[in-house]
Amino acid sequence: MQSLTLVMLQEFVDSFPNITIKAILADALYGTGDFMDKAAEITGGAQVVSQLRSNQKVSNRNHSEATLKAYFSPERR
Hints:
The protein has 3 helices and 4 strands; from the N terminus they run H-E-H-E-E-E-H. Helix 1 runs parallel beside helix 2. The protein has one domain (2-76). 5% of the residues are buried. The strands form 2 sheets. Strands 1-2 form a two-stranded parallel sheet. A two-stranded antiparallel ribbon has the order 3-4. By secondary structure, the protein is of the alpha+beta class.
């Protein structure tokens, strides 16, 4: 399954060279280091995320960082 996904990802990148992929969100099935490394290589260094944890940090367009828990908290909205 992972190899099929990587082939499809490569075909997408080849077919749409003007689109920049910045991140890939994959479920736990694809969370192996090998898959993540190859997907990042195919896309020119996109961030590959397999499972989100509440203590992971995200950055926004203003380059400020927050944990996922804080970023998606109801108080932030």
